[in-house]
Amino acid sequence: MKRIASFLTAVVLVLAGVTTLYAGETAATTSVKGWITDSNCGAKNANGSPESVKCVKDCVKGGAKLELVADGKTYQLTDQKVAMEHVGHEVVVTGTLDKDTIKVAKIEAADTKKKA
């Protein structure tokens, strides 16, 4: 009887460990609203002006990475190609957040209409 109890305890502990591993791998999806900018100039170009858009594109040609600036925080973006399509626009980036990097699921224009 002691062997069966020990075996069942071991099985329960293994299953608990596996469950914990899988729980750690599932990250919650989040959406962050902000401006696409570059790693050289950062928040300085987070405004959509024609000068800022040109600067961002020039910096990217020079090797800078595209980032998202939102509420005073800068996030790295995994999908540089899609981000480039949104330079100069306020956007909502949806994906999973890992520290300061957003694994991009989608980027879309932000709703700029004010609710009355």
Fraction of residues in β-strands: 25-35%
> What is Rg?
22 Å
Classify the secondary structure makeup into a structural class: alpha+beta
Query: What overall geometry do the principal axes of the alpha carbons give?
Result: elongated
Number of helices: 3
> What fraction, in percent, of the residue positions are helical?
25-40%
What is the string of helix and strand elements?
HEHEEHEE
Arithmetic mean of pLDDT? 85
Strand order of the largest sheet: 1-2-3-5-4
End-to-end Cα distance: 71 Å
Biggest beta sheet attributes: 5 strands, mixed, barrel
Number of strands: 5
**Regions with little confidence, pLDDT below 50 for 5+ residues:** none
Secondary-structure blueprint:
Elements: H1 2-25, E1 29-38, H2 50-61, E2 66-70, E3 73-77, H3 80-84, E4 90-98, E5 101-109
Parallel strand pairs: 3-5
Antiparallel strand pairs: 1-2, 1-4, 2-3, 4-5
Describe the overall structure:
With 116 residues, the chain is an alpha+beta fold. It is 35% helix and 33% strand. It contains three helices and five strands, in the order αβαββαββ. The chain has helices spanning 2-25, 50-61, 80-84; strands at residues 29-38, 66-70, 73-77, 90-98, 101-109. A five-stranded mixed beta barrel has the order 1-2-3-5-4. The N and C termini lie far apart (71 Å). 18% of the residues are buried. The mean pLDDT is 85.
